Amino acid sequence: MRYVRYTPSSPQTSFSLAFDSGINIKVRMLMMALVVLVLALVSVVSCDSQCYNTTPKNRESGVINVHLVCHTHDDVGWLKNVDEYFVGSQQNIYKAGVGYIIDSVVQNLQDNPDRKFVYVEMAFFSRWWNEASDAKREAARTLVKNKQLTFANGGWCMHDEAAAHFVGMVDQTTRGHRFLLDTFGYVPRTGWQLDPFGHSATQAYLFGHDLGFDAMVLGRSDHVDLEKRKLEKSMEMLWSPSPTFGKSKAILTQIRPDGNYQPPPCFCFDFNACACDPIQDDTSLEDYNVDQKVEEFVQQAILYNDTIRGDDIMFLMGSDFQWENANIWYKNLDKLIHYANKDPRVNVFYSSPEDYFAAKRASGVEFPTKSDDFFPYSDGWNGYWTGYFTSRPSQKRYAFLMTSYLQSARQIQYFMGSSLRESDVLDELENAVSIVLHHDAITGTAKQAVADDYAKRLYKGGEGAASLLNQGFKEIIDSKVRGRGGDDDGVIRPVEESSVNDGDVLQRAEGLDLDNDFVQCPLLNISTCAFTETSSRSKQNMQVVVYNNLAQARDDFVHLPIGKESSVAVFDGAMNPVASQITGLDPSVRPGSSEDVEDLGFAVQIPPKGLAVYYVLFQNIPQNATLAQRSKTRAVSPNEASIKISDGNIGLTFDGSSGLMRGMENQKYGIQMESSIDFLVYNSSNGQGQNSGAYIFRPEGTLPLLNRGDKLNLTVVEGPLFSEMRQTFAPWLHLSTRVYGNRDWAELMWRVGPIPFADNLGKEISMRVSSSVSSGDEFYTDSNGRDMLKRVVNYRPTWDLQVSEPVAGNYYPLTAALAIHDDKSEMAVLLDRACGGTSLNSGDLEFMVHRRILADDARGVGEALNETECGCRDCHCAGLRVAGTTGLVLASATDGPGLRRQVQARKESPLVTAFRAITSMDRVSPLSGIQGKFPDNVSVMTFHAQDAASILIRLAHMYQAMESSSHSRTAKVDLQSLLPGKQITEIHEKSLSANQDLGSITGTTVVSVDPMQIRTFVVKHKPASSSSSSSSSLAGGLAAAF
Predict the structure, then answer these.
(1) pTM of the model
(2) Domain residue ranges in the chain
(3) N or C: at which end does the chain have fewer Cβ atoms within 10 angstroms?
(4) Neighbours of 915 (CB within 10 A)
(5) What is the DSSP letter of 508?
């Protein structure tokens, strides 16, 4: 449709009025008045919305086809929290109201069917939809149907790619895609990662190809890489960085030429954000600028077209929280299209990402390739965005923990009856975990008040999940004790109707103690649990349930704080004595209260996707009991030349004179080498050009923790289950290195903070493990918990690196692991949260654990990263203390990858432990949610009931190709083994986010999973027949699972 502007002199709109001379003069006057009124209405209405020709012409060769893609970038929290951004409050902080943006866009799209818009963040759009009137909803449906309103990415947020773990990334994407599918029947086709601060290999194949995306748009690339790509016309490429899949999962990818997502200079028409003049086409006014604006626009198009291949370019029209007044934008863009198309050099039109990439593919352009990722990112010689890899380490841990906690809660929810399978009791946690994956959330780059809001959301969501888990444990265990066990096979079977409903769960989440419920202690990582401490002092016996959400059986250890001088014994669910150990707390674990509490540790065995029960008795202890043995704790004398702690397999040797570790051995693999652990304190750059900050890591040098000749304070703890060496590097920095009996790795338990700043310098703390592994300048980092990628010090695969920041420029994101190896051995650290890391010297593993910075780095957040224990910033409160546990693996080069992946799985899936008071012990053998054998190289990544009769199951292969001779192989999984007590009726394979059907599986319930592959299924089921199962009870049989 063509829109023609009305002007009184235009022959197309002039009127010739011929009246018969016999017509009454009054009639003539009336007709004249009506004509004038009609002309006035045409002038007003048509010139607002239909004055300009915006109808797209056919794509033309020999001219630049300019796709105008209108968008807004709406952070799901940053300077304001997600609620404030949506409703538009706190305008003094930032002028933005996302609800008004969507209102305005939807209204103005209706005024011209040529107009288009792309939206991204479903956390906002779903909220707008929930509040919208029926009329607004119908308008949105029509716009989507007409392809005027489109969606890119379509996740709940635009997730980060450095600190985010792949399980959470998939969950938040699935949540957004589910909303779009249910609401509009819409399936996004384009990835849209405009603002993350670097881009990962996992993003390319998992969140590109496996989501069914045709293409992907990335916002940021290193400034040197960016300039090189412009010169080589390689801003668009086929990206295939997975070592396992290679080109088979390549995706067409564009990097934005400005390293961002802004409109061309002075073509921003958001008057709140930009100082650009509008297009003024009224020749009767002084500021007529059409010719100037068109020429500027065409020059920008020519400049951009010189950086890519083909004759199609995409201009992004919008930026952060823009389009609140869509009328201004569209009014000016309508004019721009109308006038620019009079210039023969360009063909300008409204477009969408899908339209753009369809044109690119149709043009026959050959694209260059890229096989590495986009880390680390720098926007200047001293501006390496590698600090955010570690910023806010406690928040990163919390997000990591709650992602796994959600998986455990989903598994238990499935077993609790059909009504709870359809309940949204876990929606609050799912929403919180999805929001926290945003690229200004888990990155630690939001303001402190917003970071507090993220933590609050995780906490509130976790309360509901904890209530469901506690009640699920109670139902499973009590139903078994009451004799409703049925088959004696140690398998958990779901009930069709549980005695618990979602109302009960919500009441318990609100803290109403309906009866003898389980409780959980979220602060066990710092040996704090009021329930266990009070129970020990009052001699109240406890039942402990331990849940394992992994698909493999697990031998592990549980640690509980108890009152000092307690006499205690531990039994398993079959009432067999369990060896246990009491150890005094390191004073740094609970400063000020460690002397009144001790640690009770005991070994546990938990079946796959299952639970085990233990009893901790403080009174009425049976005669066959083995009382907990007290460990021996002593200070190490400076005169001791060498002290060794060992579990019989892992051995660590320490130098008594210096207090430092000197050697490590793994007798199982016959590996022994020199090894040491120390900490590096980097002084943050402050006031000398580019500062360190929430985003940027720019050290000015290292500050030695120890002066020459200083000695660390050493305390050795020896016991029957574990031994440890406690080192005090500084009053605010402590390390306990622990070895457990029959475990193939060591645990590094570190406590850092409050970081001092009396010298007015920020500090960034890294742990360094040094060894004699001959790794040279090569090391390996994980990509969002999936592939391990090769890194080389001071090197980039696709351009010549000029080393301007020798430390920060070699830091890479770590989500799970950092490893080195030579021909004989592999050493790796396995993490309990995301951070940054490197290997600056052969044999070294270095990873950052905490940051406290006193300056802002001028990247937008406007605050120094100065976390305190009180949550305040500009106060006299002590700095934040952070505690963590890192696995240290040393093995042969052949067996190292397998052991590393096993430890990684444990770190990613912490045990869930709950407690309740008891007056007697009942026999409760371990129970598993898996019936039969399950492969040891596949994880059940997702086990999420969709309704009473279907479940979403994702299977993820844990190894990449050629990584392990024994594990990098195709696995066979029987889906029926995951659904005991059920009969599978249908299996539908889905795309990664479950929004596209890839076909049905018939005639078998066995599926194969290749290395690094993730397969997604929706499985429909019904209760098994009586011949298959003699009971529909919750607990299933009474037999032990071992």
Answers:
(1) 0.92
(2) 1-51, 65-370, 518-630, 632-908, 933-1023
(3) N
(4) 21
(5) H
Contact predicate 956/939, CB 8 Å: yes
d(CA 365, CA 351): 19
Grade residue 502 by pLDDT with cuts at 50, 70 and 90: low
Are 518-630 and 933-1023 equal in CATH topology?
yes
Is there a contact between 533 and 590 (Cβ–Cβ < 8 Å)? Answer: no
| Of 82-86, 449-453, 537-541, 1028-1032, minimum mean pLDDT range | 1028-1032
> Any idea which architecture 65-370 has in CATH?
Alpha-Beta Barrel (3.20)
Question: What is the Cα–Cα distance from 109 to 147, expressed in whole angstroms?
Answer: 11
Sign of CA dihedral 472, 476, 482, 485: positive
pLDDT band per the 50, 70, 90 thresholds, residue 484: low
Burial profile 714-733: b = 16 or more Cβ within 10 angstroms, e = fewer? bbbbebebbbbbbbbbeebb
Using pLDDT thresholds of 50, 70 and 90, give the confidence band for residue 47: low
For the domain made up of 632-908, give the CATH fold: Beta-galactosidase; Chain A, domain 5 (2.70.98)
Q: For domain 933-1023, is the CATH number 2.60.40.1360?
A: yes
- Residue 844: C-alpha distances to residues 716, 778, 970 (Å): 25, 10, 33
How far are the Cα atoms of 237, 360, 362, 689, 937 from residue 366, in angstroms, in the given order?
9, 10, 11, 42, 39
Q: Is 946 left (phi over 0), alpha (psi -120 to 50) or beta?
A: alpha
pLDDT in tens, 386-397: 999 999 999 999
In tens, the pLDDT along 801-832 reads: 999 999 999 999 999 999 999 999 999 999 99
We find that the CATH architecture of domain 518-630 is Sandwich (2.60)
Cβ contacts of residue 501 below 8 Å, gap of 6+?
419, 420, 423
Least confident of 501-515, 554-568, 736-750, 846-860: 501-515
Q: What end-to-end distance do the CA atoms of the chain give, in Å? A: 73
Distance set, CA 73 to CA 104, 120, 190, 321, 789 (Å): 15, 8, 15, 6, 30
Query: Phi/psi at 384 (nearest 5 deg)?
Result: -85, 120
- What SS3 class is residue 225? helix
**CA–CA dist 737, 775 (Å, integer):** 24
Q: Which helix (H) or strand (E) holds 25?
A: helix 25-41
